[in-house]
Records
---
Amino acid sequence: MHFVRDARHVDGYTLLLTFEDGVTRLVDLEPYLDGEIFEPLKDLDYFRTVQVNPDIDTIVWDNGADMSPDFLYAIGVDVAENSLTAAAAA
């Protein structure tokens, strides 16, 4: 089981998340903002208010929306992998 330790907004619906194992992953949440609880997150200003709740070890918003840290880890792209891909494309 993974735990989110830090979250930073990057751009659009993408967050830079750091997990308990020290791995940092880019997570694009745009395709996953379905359902009533996630509707307010489609407003980018509101999306940017993301926080880490240390009691449940994941990202949350004030409206009660949260996401499983294991799900976030699984859909995220390792920052080292992303850097290598960008360097190879250049």
Note: The mean pLDDT is 91.
---
Amino acid sequence: MIALSISFFITAMLYAAVGFGGGSTYSALLVLAETDYRILPSIALLCNLIVVIGGTYKFSRAGHINLRRIAPWIVTSVPAAWLGGYLDIPEMVFIGLLGVSLLIVGMRMLWFKREIDDTHNIEQETINKHRFLPPIIGVMLGLLSGLVGIGGGVFLAPILYLMHWDSARKIAATCSIFILVNSLAGLIGQIMKLSNMALVSDISAYWLLFPAVLIGGQIGSSMGAKHLNPNTLRVMTALLILYVAVRLIWRWWEMSV
């Protein structure tokens, strides 16, 4: 448990430094640690919440959160995340989904495009052009979030950049809210499912992971804001994710043959 806690600490630190929660990598690390896959998403989502709550609060205090603009993205993602958390899927499907998700996340971080200039105001243009996309994308990302124990922000961010949705800070704030609400909805679905299986109490054995991500997340936020080059942090995080993704996909391959 000590080694796993250190891994969670490092993951939270790296993800928080680049503005995300780390749910996908928490799930992967738990898989590799032979954790029961049925309780695994609940642990990952709870860790995700611990990391992103602080970031969301900071974005809110800085005035970067516009709930009216964010609402179309979360109105469908939240119920979908709950449904994903409540659904019971086979272990092989779970590991396959998680491995592919991590591979996409890692590649996205490694080949990240330049962010939008904070002074570029494109709000009304974007609203008119992409009016019907947010609810559709919200359903897909919310369902994936609940199924495999992620917040979905790491998938939402590149979509928003491609859409020229808003400035880098406001996109980061939107992703923070997206991660928060979907992690919470997915966690509720997972807990309801585990209650039916009498497995909720098994989560307490992993209590040491929660203070690990709390401390790591706080250090990571400070590092990202003040000390380290964001590109260096992004590449380090991407390489960690890709390494874990390859191990997961290899494990899925062994299970399928």
Note: The chain has one domain: 2-233+240-256.
---
Amino acid sequence: MKFNITTIIGLVLILIIIGLIYYGVYYLKKKTREFSRQVFGTDSLKEGFDTIESEYATTPKSVSAMTSLYLPRITKDFPDFSYDEMKTKAVNVLTSFLLGLATFDVGALTEGNSELKNKLENTINIWKTKSQKPHFDSIKVHRTELSNYTKKDGRCIITFQSSVQYYQYVTDDVTHQIVSGSKDVLYQSKYEIDLVYIQNRSLLADEHIANSALGVNCPNCGAPITNLGAKFCEYCGTGVVEVNIHAWDFDDVREIRR
């Protein structure tokens, strides 16, 4: 069998190309293993990314811990403010809000003003129009701290921030199949929960909120208590030392996606 020069050169070039491809693949794999070892401590990139995903799913989100800054200001304005009690209530409001969303039941919300209940009801209705249902299984709150304290437009607003985990997934209402999320992978998130106090009703732009949001009245004559941290009714002089803790109400729950 005879080969001409052109054929021989062609075969040599093909072998060279094959050799270069093989070397390139070998070199790339080598560098990939070295990179994976340096970054993940393993030869496999997939194994490394799986490890990161697992750590991300089990590592709690950090919260904006400003308790040491804001709590002294709050207790100065409201000497009877019970931080531990309100913190516990904030956690209960958060978990009951999520459970209410998962069960499509506004009644599951343990407490909160009309604005918060309306928000839950509206969110439920949005999911219903999609014919989908969100699920929050095995809810666990890792940490809760004060993140803000503001006084504006007749309101005092205390904001708690919570780090929370759960198994989050969404199912189709008709097929009951999972359309997003997973029953097996934890999801880490954080939420803010607003606690509001009507400082001065006359400053509120919304008359409905001013009259019904918190309903703080003198236990003797029934007159509205309008001043921040009032100790006595301005109309009859009756002591209202315990009014502050009853004046606070939960106003909002929102997820912080960052």
Note: The helical segments are 5-40, 45-58, 67-77, 83-103, 114-129, 207-212, 243-247.
---
Amino acid sequence: MTKVTSAEVAARAGVSQSAVSRVFTPGASASQKTIEKVRKAADELGYRPNSLARAMVSGKSRIIGLVVSYLENHFYPEALEKLSKLLQERGYHVLIFMASQNEDEIDQVVDEILDYQVDGIITASVAMSSELTERCRRARVPMVLFNRSQDGPGLSSVASNNVAGGRKVADFLIAGGHEKIGYIAGWSEASTQRDRETGFLAGLAKAGLELHSRDEGNFRLEDAADAARRMFSGPDRPDAVFVANDHMAFAVMDVLRFELGLRVPEDVSVVGYDDVPIAAWPAYNLTTVRQPANRMVAETVDLLLAEIDGERRGARKIEIDGPLILRGSARIAEGYET
């Protein structure tokens, strides 16, 4: 069976072949009457435009490569859905690629993405080496980091203001009268982890406090649970803990309550970071710093498409402030306002 061609659609609709092309090209202009005639003829004939052929002619695939390293953290599935929907609204298709934090695997995935002739790349929860960044630059494929940042020039990024968020948590716990405050860190190579801890420690230091105890959860449930067991099993346990993201905070709360018999927040206050939907569930009712996902997604798409369209030169680093959301997992000082 031969495929229906645009010439057949043009003949059926009584328009030129170029008019058919304009109707099916995002951003191209055509009158409403022409659009209606062409789409009616296309439906009747079962015609589908050949996106790959159009890409070869125009030099643009209208495909965005979206790289993510893990989806266990509930923040990412929601954010990726928002990114995909917004890019589709702007006339782009999305290809999602999974990669670990292993440099060799990321290197391989970037090679694969470039083979698809993508117009741009968004990386979420992935750290990019300077070598990979330079390779994309040579290929003239713009890239934006989502929920990550990178030191040095040359690469745009969009994230929440993690330093400010960490400082807010410190101020909140101090205001609640806590003095033995612990921290369970995420993956040490992640900029989000480093910035949250930097802000948190700065907030404690400003009040003349030192961190009581520290352990690492690497942004993984099992590691976070083990960290909580080590931190809270001894006699000199913290009376509050800041956990570097909600995903780990849920595991920490489960260990505290169901293994160690501690009450949250009566015995231990727990604060997370992200404000994923589960944080509001009564089972956790987690106090947390909200990542402004809608704004982060919008800024990421605007940055990338501006680079693709040649409207902007030079990298930008955007940090968006997120509020502290007060719930029942942490003691709240009387009259405290965020």
Note: The longest helix spans residues 191-206.
